[in-house]
């Protein structure tokens, strides 16, 4: 999904020395059927996330106050659809049906977007900047444990296209114009954080291959303690994004 943040906003990480599955290509790693199933799940979740984000941003463009703002959101939506198409095509390349791969994640992601539908333009910007980035941080963490081919694709579709600066500029300007806006948006961002983590946990819990990937069996290097550290890094990155927006975490 779109990653509307700057590198400084992302969880702290060092360049890993890849071992185990992370040192293999897809063809080498996919001989393990459990790993292959986990990758199909992961790409399916990402693909539906991108498709849903495309639909949401196109809808949010209707709330934009100016033609220029509408155009900016349209560009963001277009980038999301391009990422979806790459994931869909990759699933076809590895002999997986994209629709079937996405289906297990439809209910959870649709529910997340239903519960976090923005009521105005500014809430939509905060959701794009803060909400989507939480999911992107999670996928970047997982990517470090994927085979080299899958890792490259996942990082590419999470690549920052610079739209974060647009959201920060608009939100900070609104807060400067009316200080009351800051309190409302801070509460909104906290709600996004809670809902995003809740839905992520639900998705992982319901998919055996993904949960195994996270806690160690499939993906080399993850254990329960590391999962805890991962969520700590994601939370810290969220706090930095809130500060960039001029909001209290």
Describe the model.
The relative contact order is 0.19. The two termini are 23 Å apart. The protein is mainly α. It is built from ten helices and no strands. The longest helix has 28 residues, at 33-60. The protein has helices at 26-29, 33-60, 67-93, 98-115, 121-143, 148-157, 163-177, 180-206, 208-215, 224-245.
Give the structure's gist in a few sentences:
By secondary structure, the chain is mostly helical.
Report the helical percentage: over 70%
The Cα radius of gyration reads: 18 Å
Coarse structural class: mainly alpha
N- and C-termini, Cα separation? 23 Å
Q: Which term fits the overall shape?
A: globular
Largest sheet entry: none
How many strand segments?
0
The string of secondary-structure elements, in order, is HHHHHHHHHH
Low-confidence stretches: none
Average pLDDT for all residues: 84
- The DSSP helix count reads 10
